[in-house]
């Protein structure tokens, strides 16, 4: 079953110089309990797609067309007040920069508790505290009772990203949007965070929309992959299909631009995405 | 045996952190007794996670900071004992390319001035000669001559990194320290910059000290790899040996964290 269906989404940015079609006619589905990766380079529209689902597009940007269905309900028709209830409770988001997305002047526990205070008003203080500790245990923060009272600056990058995930997971959302959550982390920490996200998904059944430019990460975490290029989807396939048999020339160029240990001859020149090729002229590969 | 450019001997760099008036200062051992050599014409990589001391090592080699103990020999001579004249010469022979192409270029300067500045300071070339050399360098790194009068903000990350590379090449250096030169770039741009670095190395007979945390990139371009962990060298061998036969537990952990992707035909 599909939790989210994005249909013909269009998000444009307006400026004096004209219209920038950041997201142009993008359609994809996020099945229940699965991980969908949107992969693309900077400027491909992958983050704008995620922001459009959250409806966090600010002036001069605007969602000008399409539908975003959450269990059949079109989010684009909700009022601001209704949408605020969706954000954080049904759909939550984690960001790339674990160093700047936490508030430095509040304790970690307070910030995880905030989501519960806003969305689970029936819980009392004691119940919330227990739930925060539980969330911190879930994401693997050691000594949660002690760390509850710590400020973010005392934590490492990996720990902070765990706190961000704890905040996002506190209300048990149906969809977790992760926008490059591991890009700023060291590789071994990245592996830990990806494992954590997979574990949480197995335990809670949350669907994940994962935004990244790193095909290696896609390989590790994705069930379904959407490849974006200049606002358009150029290829859509299951992760296995995509890596076994990439069909679109852009996807192939992207895959070939990464050196692969043991396969790519050392010091050979890598294939690159050719700026002179109009990749949009090739037919879209939707599987 | 090829010629040795650098010999690093028992290099140490400790930082003191004052915790308060009545507390004993804490000592951070950023680099703790490391020794290695760099041979002429090779690409030697320093890998490790943030905080392992790889960038501190680069700073010590560039003599931006002075070591707590140990020696760095450049072509047989200790850089700590250089006279002012020798040091000036040393600084033309060893250049650096930085990680962040956004903050390492002066936003108020045009590309031509940025690339030509080392020549203005360190050579007696006339302005015409400098312009000619800058245009030549821009051509070598794949930039169009009409970009001479543009500002850095008019370029993408990959193009800016090319500006940094052209500037590093201006004084015909022997060694270039590349401090995470592709980490901030998209994969396809990363491939372009890596190709460029490999081409330039062959063309100008350069030696690279390449600093990175990305093992698949490091494996691709390096002759030899030095793996650092908490200020120490835990493993040092040829790229091929390291990947086929990693000995240290930390190296294995790093290697297993590389996602494996099959080649696309």
Describe this structure in words.
The complex is a heterodimer of chains A (287) and B (265). Chain A is an alpha/beta fold and 287 residues long. Chain A has a single domain (2-90, 173-286), classed as Rossmann fold (3-Layer(aba) Sandwich), CATH 3.40.50. Chain A is built from ten helices and eleven strands. Chain A has helices spanning 46-54, 80-86, 108-119, 125-138, 144-147, 157-169, 187-204, 215-221, 239-244, 249-256, and strands spanning 2-15, 18-31, 35-39, 61-70, 73-74, 91-94, 175-179, 207-212, 224-229, 232-238, 285-286. Chain A has a seven-stranded mixed sheet, with helices on both faces. Chain A has a four-stranded antiparallel sheet with strand order 2-1-4-5. In chain A, helix 3 (108-119) runs parallel beside helix 6. Chain A is globular, with a radius of gyration of 20 Å. The model of chain A has no long low-confidence stretch (mean pLDDT 91). Chain B is an alpha/beta fold. Chain B has a single domain (4-256), classed as 3-Layer(aba) Sandwich (Rossmann fold), CATH 3.40.50. Chain B has nine helices and ten strands. In chain B, the strands form two sheets. Chain B has a six-stranded mixed sheet with strand order 6-7-8-3-9-10, with helices on both faces. In chain B, strands 2-1-4-5 form a four-stranded antiparallel sheet, with helices on one face. In chain B, helix 6 links the parallel strand 7 (175-179) and strand 8. The model of chain B has no long low-confidence stretch (mean pLDDT 91). The A-B interface holds A 41-42, 157, 186-191, 213-217, 219-220, 243-244, 246, 251-264, 266-267, 269-273 and B 49-50, 157, 186-192, 194-195, 198-199, 213-217, 219-222, 239-240, 243, 253-254, 256-265.
Under CATH, the homologous superfamily of chain B reads P-loop containing nucleotide triphosphate hydrolases
Tell me, briefly, the overall form of chain A.
globular
Helix content bin of chain B: 25-40%
**Strand arrangement across the biggest beta sheet of chain A:** 6-7-8-3-9-10-11
- CATH topology group of chain A: Rossmann fold
Shape of chain B: globular
The structure class of chain A reads: alpha/beta
